[in-house]
């Protein structure tokens, strides 16, 4: 079966096939319901009022260092565009299996890649997840079907890129650097932007499966939105915390390459996705990274005798290949390049 959605719809599925069942880990951290991630007001971050902007930059820096996740409000993305893109994403997954197979890439780094699980060639157990991945910058790539999908995608990811670039300026200032510090070090203007649309069908036994196991994201920042069904959890102080986004907000998380660049001052945080039996969850992530051929290493400005370089230099492309060629094992891919 090409997709989980196809599996669910092929018959009256009453139980989960054995190749999707995950064993429960008795050492799983305790779930903590009362915490929630910080909230950043984007309008304050780009305010012309120096005092207001300075306070927002400090709050942004604290969120990146302490949590690695934050909710972004007043971001300027029209709610109509966000909702339209979620509808377009649903329409893509509603296409027939044969139509979706047209976009099944033969290589994990293909500019358009539609598939299921994470990497079915190495996954020991399959994940309850279908996906579409598109490299949308520096050259925009997207499926031509369904009607209107490509146009809506391009408008959406362009706006996301503008938001992420402003956030990177704020993070640069929070590190005590010039606002274009990350832009220049990572050549952000020519950098890679990856669009990932995840589809998690309703599952008859959600406690037995995993949408995505514990992992970290590559790149600098990931901007995430979703439909009304939750499922994302982040690891904070050794506990799993469910994320409940505010209406019309984005969830932002720091990526592995921001941790490398800052030599660990900012951490890329482990997170996972659970599924439910109520309905399909759709999430849309846009990950901003450097150009594929860029060599990423700790910035000299953030390395010193008391803080030696903690990661070896590696090209962004090689890092992606390492991550995508191995199974998600509950650890950060950063472990493979630590000094």
Automatic annotation (TrEMBL):
GO annotation, cellular component aspect: cytoplasm; nucleus
Entries under PROSITE patterns matching the protein: FE2OG_OXY (PS51471)
Protein family: Belongs to the iron/ascorbate-dependent oxidoreductase family.
Superkingdom, natural source: Eukaryota
Gene Ontology MF annotations: L-ascorbic acid binding; metal ion binding; oxidoreductase activity
Stated role: Involved in the regulation of shoot development and salicylic acid (SA) homeostasis.
Location of this chain's protein in the cell: Cytoplasm; Nucleus
Keywords: Cytoplasm, Iron, Metal-binding, Nucleus, Oxidoreductase, Vitamin C
Source organism of the structure: Lupinus angustifolius
Name of the protein this chain belongs to: Fe2OG dioxygenase domain-containing protein
InterPro entries cross-referenced by the UniProt entry: DIOX_N (IPR026992), IPNS-like_FE2OG_OXY (IPR044861), IPNS-like_sf (IPR027443), Oxoglu/Fe-dep_dioxygenase_dom (IPR005123), Plant_2OG-oxidoreductases (IPR050295)
Domain Fe2OG dioxygenase, residue spans: 190-290
């Amino acid at each position: 079966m090409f997709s989980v959605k196809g599996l669910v719809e092929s018959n009256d599925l009453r139980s989960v096939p054995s190749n999707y069942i995950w064993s429960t880990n008795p050492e799983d951290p305790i779930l903590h319901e009362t915490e929630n991630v910080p909230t950043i007001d984007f309008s304050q971050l780009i305010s012309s009022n120096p005092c207001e902007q300075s306070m927002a930059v400090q709050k942004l820096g604290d969120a990146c260092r302490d949590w690695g996740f934050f909710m972004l409000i007043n971001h300027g993305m029209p709610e109509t565009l966000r909702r339209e893109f979620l509808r377009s994403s649903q329409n893509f997954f509603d296409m027939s299996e044969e139509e979706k197979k047209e976009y099944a890439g033969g290589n994990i780094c293909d500019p358009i890649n539609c598939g299921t699980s994470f990497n079915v060639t190495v996954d020991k157990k399959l994940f309850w997840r279908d996906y579409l991945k598109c490299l949308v910058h520096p050259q925009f790539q997207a499926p031509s079907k369904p009607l209107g999908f490509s146009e809506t995608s391009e408008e959406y990811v362009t706006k996301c890129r503008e938001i992420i670039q402003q956030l990177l300026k704020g993070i640069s200032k929070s590190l005590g650097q010039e606002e274009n510090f990350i832009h220049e070090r990572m050549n952000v203007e020519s950098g890679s932007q990856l669009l990932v649309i995840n589809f998690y069908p309703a599952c008859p036994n959600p406690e037995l499966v995993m949408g995505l196991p514990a992992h970290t994201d590559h790149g600098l920042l990931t901007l995430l939105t979703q439909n009304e069904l939750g499922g994302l959890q982040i690891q904070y102080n050794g506990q799993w915390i469910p994320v409940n986004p505010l209406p019309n907000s984005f969830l932002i998380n720091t990526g592995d390459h921001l941790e490398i660049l800052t030599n660990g001052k900012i951490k890329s945080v482990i997170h996972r996705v659970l599924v439910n039996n109520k309905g399909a969850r759709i999430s849309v992530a846009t990950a901003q990274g450097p150009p594929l051929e860029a060599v990423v290493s700790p910035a000299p400005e953030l390395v010193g005798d008391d803080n030696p370089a903690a990661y070896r230099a590696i090209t962004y492309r090689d890092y992606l290949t390492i991550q995508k060629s191995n199974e998600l094992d509950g650890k950060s891919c950063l472990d493979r390049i630590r000094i």
